Amino acid sequence: MSNAPAELTHLRADGSAHMVDVSDKAVTTRTARAEAVLETRPDVIELLVAGELPKGEALGTARIAGIMAAKRTWELIPLCHPLPLSKLAIDFEPGEDRVRIIATVTTRGVTGVEMEALTAASVAALTLYDMIKAVDKQAVITGTRVLAKSGGKSGDWSVE
């Protein structure tokens, strides 16, 4: 990989893992956007959008689950810093046979929020899967990725 750092930031010289020291980094507004995609059948999408799944209204439940998960990313992913999140939005874009889940997270701090955005999108997708599995056990979660980030020393980045 051409963009690989010269040294691994989460490893000490002896190879043991540690949390990166971010105390000298500048406080900036940092935003990250991530997505996950839940693939299912068209009839399931209709039930989902109408709020008529056997387990109830799934989109609101998934939104709350994603928000809760993002706020706890530091407890779920080793070596992540706990961050005060200023804004967290989860949006759903239903298609014919899929739902695109987009999580946007903002903080004002010394480290980015890519992991929080990925966690939010992932847990929202897992929650949707849980809510539809009674009608489609073969649903698939795909395409989990960071779409964009801004703020910090490395600047802005986007796949869009």
UniProtKB/TrEMBL annotation:
Xref: InterPro entries: MoaC, MoaC_bact/euk, MoaC_sf, MoCo_biosynth_MoaA/MoaC, Mopterin_CF_biosynth-C_dom
Pfam family, one: MoaC
Binding site residues for substrate: L79, C80, H81, M115, E116
Pathway in which the depicted protein is active: Cofactor biosynthesis; molybdopterin biosynthesis
Keywords: Lyase, Molybdenum cofactor biosynthesis
Domain Molybdopterin cofactor biosynthesis C (MoaC) as annotated: residue spans: 19-152
Reaction(s) this enzyme catalyzes, per UniProt: (8S)-3',8-cyclo-7,8-dihydroguanosine 5'-triphosphate = cyclic pyranopterin phosphate + diphosphate
EC number: 4.6.1.17
Record: active site: D130
Similarity comment: Belongs to the MoaC family.
Its biological purpose: Catalyzes the conversion of (8S)-3',8-cyclo-7,8-dihydroguanosine 5'-triphosphate to cyclic pyranopterin monophosphate (cPMP).
Subunit structure: Homohexamer; trimer of dimers.
Name this polypeptide is given: Cyclic pyranopterin monophosphate synthase
Record organism: Leucobacter iarius
Originating gene: moaC
